[in-house]
Request: fold
Amino acid sequence: MNEFIETELNEEELEDTNGGLVAVIGASLVLMSGAALAYIYSKNRRR
Reply:
């Protein structure tokens, strides 16, 4: 699937796609770490 997409796009479009992927992955990492911190915080408060 990815190979097909890469062959269809030109280089400029590929760079835009990669930038979007980096942004999505970065945002999800921030959300995951935020959720993990909130979980740890609430777990420690209960004790």
Summary: The CA atoms of residues 17 and 32 lie 22 Å apart. The chain has a mean pLDDT of 80. The two ends are 49 Å apart (CA to CA). Helices lie at 2-8, 11-46.
